[in-house]
Write a structure and sequence with these properties.
It is a single chain. By secondary structure, the protein is α+β, with helices and mostly antiparallel strands. It has one domain (12-129). Helix content is 48%, strand content 28%. The model has no long low-confidence stretch (mean pLDDT 79).
């Protein structure tokens, strides 16, 4: 009677499980890299949009400050006028590509004025003093 061998043999399915586990690990690393890159890109797009809105809001505030400064320079020192037009605070409403930019300006004291510009959700203020 022939004697049976007692050697231990590895099943071929053990190698397949290792390959699947390694592939899963590589795909997980690729997924994390892609998610990180997309998060960074979305943040950069949002920052670019806010910068563009900030520029529009700043220029609106600048236009209001110029209008108020013109009124201050042309009126008498003791008139007490507070940068008004027809007894209402001066305001600006612009239609920029379907979005509205509004601004207001007011006089703080005899030697200073403030102006505010708003475009979408971005607000910018400036103060002029002399």
């Amino acid at each position: 009677m022939p004697q049976l061998s007692t050697k231990n043999y590895l099943l071929k399915t053990d190698q397949g499980a290792t390959t699947i586990l390694l592939a899963f690990l590589v795909l997980s690393v690729l997924l994390m890299t892609a998610l990180t890159a997309s998060t960074i890109m979305m943040y950069q797009v949002q920052m670019s949009r806010e910068t563009a809105n900030s520029i529009q809001a700043f220029y609106t505030a600048d236009a209001m400050a110029e209008e108020c400064l013109y009124q201050v320079r042309t009126m008498a020192d003791d008139s007490g006028d507070n940068c008004t037009r027809n007894n209402k605070p001066i305001q600006l409403l612009l239609n920029l590509g379907g979005y509205n930019a509004n601004g207001t300006a007011w006089r703080e004291n005899n030697n200073a004025l403030k102006a505010e510009g708003v475009f979408q959700a971005t607000q910018r203020q400036m103060e002029l003093s002399w």
